Amino acid sequence: MPCFLLLAALAALLGGLDALGPWFHFKTLLAFAAAFALVLSGLDAHAPNGRFGAANRVTLARLALICLLAAAIGETADDRLAWSCVVVATIAALLDALDGPLARRGGLASAFGARFDMETDALLVLVLSLLALHFDKTGAWILAAGLMRYLFVLAARPWPWLARALPTSLRRKAVCVVQISALIVCLVPVIALPWSQALAAASLALLAASFAIDTAWLMRRRHLPLEITR
Fold first, then answer.
1. Of these four, 82, 114, 160, 175, which has the most CB atoms within 10 Å of its CB?
2. What tens digit of pLDDT does each residue of 4-17 get?
């Protein structure tokens, strides 16, 4: 409930921008309601923890901010809206540094929390990619950055070895930070073409390389039983 109230307040605040249409508030709350339903559906993986925990609440707040960004897609693309998106996206990105330490300090780290954080990051990249396209900062090819994670998950259906757990990687985390940061910078009104396009292309190439490295690691182990390799 607090997240819904916070989101409603933020939507009302941004709703004062001339660029936003009458459906902005509805889109924001609808997006968050749908996302929250997905969160609840995976809550069993948080067991045996009996509390949702501060870390997951931070991630939920990030999710609310991302839904706010998603609602901006399709609205009039002016500089005021662009700056608002930059501020909201920056806050959502910075909050990502809090959830992990909070979970470990509170002893509430779980598979659910790790997955929740990862999927929230993936959604942020997708929404930022759509916004970069919406503000004409790059071509439609930038959507590959936002869709890469989801295509990877879909590919694991015909090739189950892609679903093997990957080892913790500083490189993977760094690339995620770079990708999100680059897309946020692309949205800054003073970053115009061709610079925004070049920045987006460089970050996409880095992300693709990271996925290629992980895919190669998984491919080399595709004949091993899934349960013994991490």
1. 82
2. 555 555 555 555 55
